[in-house]
Design goal:
With 116 residues, the protein is of the alpha+beta class. It is 42% helix and 20% strand. It is built from three helices and four strands, in the order H-E-E-E-H-E-H. It has a four-stranded mixed β-sheet.
Length: 116
C-alpha cells in the first residue's frame, strides 16, 4: 500500500512542478473511496480560490464516490471558478490515472466552461 501512494505522490510532484512553471491557476482533484474533492488555487497552491466536494449538503447523496457525483462536483467547481473570473486552469489530477471519476470531473468542468 505504501508503494502505491509513494508512486502516486511522485507522479503528482512532476505535474505540479510543470504547472508552477506555466503559472496558470490549478484545478486540483483528490479522491477517496467515499468522496471526491476539487479546488482551484493559484499556481503554487498558496491561495484557494474556489472549492467543491461531495461533502456539501447540495451534493450529498447515498453514494458520493461514483462517477455521477464526480461530474456534479466538476460542474459546481467550474461554476464557482467562473464566478470568480477564472476561465483557464491547469488540471492537476494528483497522480491519479485519467479515467473514471477523475475523467468525469474533468469532462463536466470543461462542459461547464473551464478550459484546460
Amino acid at each position: 500500500m505504501a508503494n502505491k501512494n509513494i508512486k502516486r505522490n511522485r507522479r503528482a510532484l512532476k505535474t505540479r512542478s510543470r504547472i508552477e512553471l506555466s503559472e496558470n491557476n490549478r484545478l486540483t482533484v483528490f479522491r477517496s473511496n467515499s468522496h471526491i474533492y476539487a479546488q482551484v488555487s493559484n499556481f503554487d497552491g498558496s491561495v484557494i480560490l474556489a472549492s467543491a466536494s461531495t461533502l456539501e449538503s447540495t451534493l450529498k447523496a447515498d453514494n458520493n464516490g461514483n462517477i455521477e457525483a464526480a461530474s456534479k462536483v466538476g460542474k459546481l467547481i467550474a461554476e464557482r471558478a467562473i464566478e470568480k473570473g477564472i476561465k483557464e486552469v491547469a488540471f492537476d489530477r494528483s497522480g491519479y490515472k485519467y479515467h473514471g471519476r477523475v475523467k468525469a470531473l474533468a469532462d463536466s468542468a470543461r462542459e461547464a466552461g473551464l478550459t484546460f
